[in-house]
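Risk mitigation, structural track. In case the binding assays with adenosine-5'-triphosphate fail to produce interpretable data, a predicted complex structure has been prepared as a fallback.
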Amino acid sequence: MANHDELFKQIIAHAKEYGYIFPSSEIYDGLSAVYDYGQYGVELKNNIKQYWWRAMVQFHENIVGIDSAIFMHPTIWKASGHVDAFNDPLIDNKDSKKRYRADVLIEDYLQKLEEKIEKEVEKAKKKFENFDETLFRKTNPNVLRSQEKIDAVGDRFAALMNETDLAGIKSLIEELEIACPVSGSKNWTDVRQFNLMFSTQMGSVAEGADTIYLRPETAQGIFVNFLNVYKTGRMKIPFGIAQIGKAFRNEIVARQFIFRMREFEQMEMQFFVRPGEELKWFEYWKEERKKWHLSLGISEESYRFHDHEKLAHYANAATDIEFRFPFGFKELEGIHSRTDFDLSQHEKFTGKKLRYFDPETNESYIPYVVETSIGLDRMFLAVLSNAYTEETLPDGSVRVVLKIPAALAPVKAAVLPLVKKDGLPEKAREIMDMLKPKMMCQYDDKDAIGRRYRRQDAIGTPYCITVDNETLVDNTVTIRERDSMQQKRVRIEEIVKELV
Ligand code: ATP
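Fallback model:
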């Protein structure tokens, strides 16, 4: 198997070749960090959305969904803190003229140290029988040295970020001798703050202002509709409001394909609870969301929680669910206990009471909020990169197969007449018509059957249904399963039962 960079490039190329993801405006040479989803991509994306929506809204009687507008009153972003504080620290390399996120340069440095530790562990694992990893990590001098450095730099970095000490961040980059990956030089500008919100103009907005923002998160659409939903839905605490929608961030450096985009989608849920009960619910949602991820059959080793030690001023607990992407463990989903910060701010800025009357305690209060926030596109990338497999078959040939969980696969079944004659296409069409109302299917009669199987493997279709001469005699077909490539003979009336 190729190294991680190579593998990632192959996944990107595969996504394009098989109609999953195209660079936006490609015939105009593309638009940086913006992507379009192709014919299979849109199906996978819709299936992920549906899988999330069902788990969050349909399965929880106390969660309802909304779909709020992208444009919102500009003061909302003042109240939420985004106008003043939704910044990333940016730094330029004077020689290459390349721009970086200063915090990411330090994070990458820390990640390299972690990779060094992992390498030591892997090396030792191969060398010793009955290898005790915990003991090794506690005693090996190389590991200890790297770990000490990670802890020391990590603590200092967190403190600098917390205090928004831009000069301190620059000093740290210099002390660690971090070089520009392009020029190799350490000739850096000062660190500056950069607001990530996109703004645009709208005819007439309140208070004469005409600047409005493309929302950088969907959550505020939920907060400002809290009263509407609470009253009209006759909701009782604890209850949640979920939303899937576009968000926009003018990311300084948008690399890594659909991992960091300037236009992306979020699937967010704000859970409103009694003050004082938020940490209990925070733990509950950590578990629930983990279960959701594991229910897709992706291995547990691909996930890890990363608890935030330093918290945003409005949060009293936060964790990231990180996924092992081809470029390492990175945030896939955030779970945050946001206290009553957002609703309190909207109360302050609007003068309207955003309170819940609790019939059990006879009190009115601003609910506390636990949110779960996952990037749809990042989840897409997690599913895609986990699915991409190159396999050498017994005959020496290599097949590329997308082992996408069947529940999410863009096409559930392909119907393939063995040959394009003898009445087989007609029979296959009958089967297509039978399956079409129940699942997304594809009919294909072009090329030899082996090539058609490969094409479906590359798309990630879990089942191929082949119609042959026997079908005309006894009404049976073969069903080939994508991952095992096992085939079995099934009666046409039983196909649906076999596939679900
Ligand atoms: P990061 O630290 O990677 O920039 P974040 O902590 O700013 O992410 P949140 O504000 O917590 O992210 O957003 C919630 C989720 O939205 C993230 O976990 C991620 O899955 C997704 N997300 C955030 N920014 C982007 C982006 N630029 N492109 C794609 N998905 C994103």
